[in-house]
Amino acid sequence: MPERTVVIASRTGLHARPAKLFVQAAAAQGVPVRIRLGAGRSVPADSMLAVMALGAEHGAEVVLEAEGPGADAALDSLAGLLSRDLDAEEAPDA
Amino acid sequence: MAETAPLPLDPRAVRLTASAADRDDAILQCGRALMEVGAVESPYLDAMLERERAVSTYMGEGVAIPHGTLKAKEVVRHDALCVLRFPDGVDWDGERVTVCVGIAARGDGHLRLLSALARILMDPERARALREAEEVAEVLRLLEPIEEEE
């Protein structure tokens, strides 16, 4: 199954805001994507609760996996998102 | 990854029968509950509203988790939660919220609290019990962290 290993770049980890952006992006893919932390079980990447429950900290390595048509493109897109500091993109006066 | 430390929930910060005019009112009530237990200073309330406008803190299972922005950490005195039940529901950008868990955390405390809370809510029975809890002691019991079974 296609996989991508990516290090969480957001300063505060994959928590509220970065998690929400990631979950929304995952849900918008045409293919189901799963995420796991270390040797843990994989969980649906489009579930806010499941992603938050991972508790992935800044610098943690997570693995994304998906199968089927479009899987590679979906994984590239989501891995790209996680490798950016999503907290830094918070609008100053948002 | 296992987090079994108790969540910092003061019984005085649990309200079983709150009611709010709208989402912002509910958030401000959470902020005031956190202030009353000495966890945050007043600028934290605006930071909670700011955070909510940037991205909804609706988490699923009828639960929202309002908290401040990163910048507001300096007005957090200690990590704390509050739990406000809104039996009549609050419209939260189209979602119906009946439980607000307000969060104040310094440093990396947010992640630990959010992760522990998410694990609790992923158990549908526990989430339902939290929405329907009628005693403060029950809320405290339901928010005891779940031990990792792995």
Automatic annotation (TrEMBL), chain A:
Domain HPr per the UniProt entry, residue ranges: 1-89
Key words of the record: Cytoplasm, Phosphotransferase system
InterPro entries in UniProt: HPr, HPr-like, HPr-like_sf
Locations listed in the record: Cytoplasm
Main location: cytoplasm
GO cellular component terms listed in the entry, alphabetical order: cytoplasm
Coiled coil location: none
Biological process according to GO: phosphoenolpyruvate-dependent sugar phosphotransferase system
Pfam families, per the entry: PTS-HPr
Entry-linked NCBIfam families: PTS_HPr_family (TIGR01003)
Name the UniProt record assigns to this protein: Phosphocarrier protein
Organism of origin: Streptosporangium sandarakinum
UniProtKB/TrEMBL annotation, chain B:
Domain PTS EIIA type-2: 7-146
A Gene Ontology molecular function term of the record: protein-phosphocysteine-sugar phosphotransferase activity
Keywords: Kinase, Phosphoprotein, Phosphotransferase system, Sugar transport, Transferase, Transport
Domain of life of the source: Bacteria
One BP annotation, GO: phosphoenolpyruvate-dependent sugar phosphotransferase system
Database matches in Pfam families: PTS_EIIA_2 (PF00359)
GO cellular component terms given for this protein: plasma membrane
Family matches, as SUPFAM superfamilies: Phoshotransferase/anion transport protein (SSF55804)
Purpose of the protein: The phosphoenolpyruvate-dependent sugar phosphotransferase system (sugar PTS), a major carbohydrate active transport system, catalyzes the phosphorylation of incoming sugar substrates concomitantly with their translocation across the cell membrane. The enzyme II CmtAB PTS system is involved in D-mannitol transport.
UniProt-recorded name of the protein: Mannitol-specific phosphotransferase enzyme IIA component
